[in-house]
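Quick one: N-acetyltransferase domain-containing protein from Candidatus Electrothrix marina, structure tokens please.
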Amino acid sequence: MILRNIKHLLLNLRQEGGVETLYRLCFRFLRINSFDVFCLDLSNINFVGDAFLPGAVVKEITEKGLQDLREKYVQLPSEFYINKLEPEKKYRCFICFFKEQPALIVWFCDGMSSGFVDIASTDVEMNHIYCRKEFRGHKLLQHTISVIVPIMKAEKIRNVVTVVNCRTIACIKPLKICCFKRIGRLKRFGIFTWKVPIIKA
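--- reply ---
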């Protein structure tokens, strides 16, 4: 855990500079953060999202594809390096390209948890959601989820669980539009997490 946090810190410094890294540290270590836990029940959903958005294309990216993107766009934030920072976990990566640029990234953890919540083997956790600043305001997360949901349903996934900081309204709003339901809340200070029982609505 400590080694991973150090690697993450060094990567942030390299990719995003000192100011952004300081902001991330202050955000995590100078306050108690509250997180909402959301769940999308794929076995009981009549969700028809916006799977078409002009200029947007969602792709599942292989490890080689990610490496190619990192070499082409050298200032990508640390969220584009999650599989390097957490190699022990089995991640899948989806990227929404907007106007041919990697704009938004979403990671799915198959059968393993990020540490915030416990999930069943039939569920996946969606985490490390990040939209690059210059592409925000285009409803890219809503569009990305609309594309991914049919893929997950076809793979017999029952639930998609995600944990989102309560302050990130720009992320919470599209989750609600896409039929995610809030099922719990937890708090975190630095590396310490206080979990609460998760009761599915």
